[in-house]
Structures are given as C-alpha cells and as structure tokens.
Amino acid sequence: MQGLLTLASGIDRMNRFFGIVAAVLVAAACAISAGNALSRYALDLSSNAFLEIQWQMFAGVFLLGAPYVLKLNEHVRVDLIYGGLNARRKLWVDVTGYLVFFFPVCFIMLEMAWPWAWTSYLEGEISANAGGLAVWPAKFLLPFGFTLLALQGLAEFIRRIAALRGDIALDVRYEKPVQ
Q: Domain Tripartite ATP-independent periplasmic transporters DctQ component: where (predicted)?
C-alpha cells in the first residue's frame, strides 16, 4: 500500500503543477482581455485572435485546474445525505462513487475526446473566423485534462482505500490526509 500512496503523492505534485499553470492562465487571460479592450477603444484595433485565445485559455483553466480542485476537495458536492454520515461511511460512498460514476465518466470522455482532438490535429484545424487561431491545441486540452482528472481520482481512490484499511487517517471534516 505504501507504494500506491507514493504514487498518489506523485500524482498530487503533478496536478499541483498544472493547477499553478491554470492560475497563470487566468492572469494571462485577464491581461489579454484588458489589452484587447484597450487596443479596441483607444487605438481602434482588434483581432478575433484575442477573443479566441481567451476562450482557449478558459478551457485550459477549467481542464488543467479541475484535477487540483479535486485534490484539494474543493469541488462542488451535494451532501444532503453525505454530510450526516460518519467518516467510514463517507469513505465507502467515495469509493463507490469513484467506481460507479467518476472513472466511467472519465473514460467515456477520453474515448470520445481523443479521436476528436487527433482528427483536428491531423487536419490542421483552424478557426473559421478571420484572424482565427489553430483550434487543435485547445481540443487536446480535453483528453489531457480528463487524463489528469482520472489520475487525480485514482490518487483519491487510493487514499480512501488506505483509510478504510487503517493505513492512513483522513481528516473527517475535509477528507484530507492528516499531516
């Protein structure tokens, strides 16, 4: 189990890196948006590329940041029942949720997104808008982001199993490993 927990920690570090990348993308998108507004209103210059890079960055923020949000346990959870459960039952709900919902959805998304992104790359797809950008890099964010998400789910699943076995303790309030 220790080897799996080490793997989970490595996945955490990798997704922390991509969480930082997502945060940088937020700042860059804000700067581009401000620069676009300034150039449009002050200089009467504009380009569709400024708008397109912003939505591509938004895709990066969401898809690269989501795994780190899962790691921090800051994702949205409807816990009408979950909140009232004891720690062990919460672990079982989490394990079941990962197996029945989380992993199947990640794998379905990967199965659908990979051919879509690959075809876009092979065709050298670019935006139909004048001055538009290449579209395939943004499309590759989908399978890449879901791969990162599935890996983070694996790390969380490993931790839940370890906690059920008594190998680690999780903070009951936040479901994070006790330091």
A: 31-161
Q: Look up the domain containing 126 and give its range.
A: 2-177
Question: Residues with Cβ < 8 Å from 15, sequence gap 6 or more?
Answer: 67, 68, 71, 148, 151, 152
Using 50, 70 and 90 to split pLDDT, how confident is the model at 179? very low
Q: Which amino acid is at 112?
A: M
Task: Please give the pLDDT value at position 119.
Answer: 92
User: How many angstroms separate the CA atoms of 9 and 158, rounded?
Assistant: 10
Cα(124)–Cα(143) distance, rounded to whole angstroms? 18
Q: Quick check: pTM over 0.85?
A: no
The one-letter code for the residue type at 77 is R
Place of tokens 């059920």: 164
91 neighbors 160 (Cβ within 8 angstroms): yes
Domain count, the chain: 1
Other Cβ atoms less than 10 A from the Cβ of 176: the count is 13
CB hemisphere CA count around 91 (13 angstroms) = 19
Distance CA 94, CA 152 (A): 14
